[in-house]
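#structure-requests
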Amino acid sequence: MLILLPPSESKSNRRRGRPADPSSWSFPELAETRALVAKHLREVSQSPTATADLGVSPGLADEVARNLVLETAPATPAAEVYTGVLYDALDLASMDAPARRRANSWLVVVSALHGAVRPKDRITAYRLSMDVRLPGLGPVAAAWRPVLDEVLAPAAGREVVVDCRSSTYAVAWTPRGEVADRWVQVRVPGASHMAKHTRGLVARHLCVVGQRARTPERLAGTVGEAFDVDLTPPARRGRPWVLDVTAR
């Protein structure tokens, strides 16, 4: 099973430790694009207009400065780098060993800088959103679209794609063909804060329960054990099933 998560805007690093080793990350096929995006991000982050170019307020200049030490800053498992509402609800650290193993295999964070990483991949905190247009590169999402399908479709295998991404990150990869037939977008009615929280709880529930699903209907049944759900089939082929989820 493939559970897609968005990154968080807030990120944290360990204060000590070895720097990141990109050759050790999941999806090594993305190495060339990762290096290209990192190069342009570094160049932009050195500019006097860096915060404006990256679409953040001047008060976040310290976070932008992290982009200049990606190769030397202490590396931290992605599960700890990404923080915030969704990841608090996921609470990976509190899972038992079998659930953690499933999480490390099933969860994939779609990242503007790295393309896709798994929870155990040791990365560093950065500031870049998927909707940014980097000078010299163009839209970040467009840089990732041609290569993400090559790794995420095989990662899904013959099981469902559980899409918990925000719209900003969903544009970087659209499942195609048979994979699209098993693509389920998790939608949460209400405010974005509650949506993030509920998506984190759904991802956690799937990892803890450990029931693989090959069909959207089977997924809805598993999620429905802990939430109120409503599954809507796609209007046409190539569009996602929609699973509306409400916490009880």
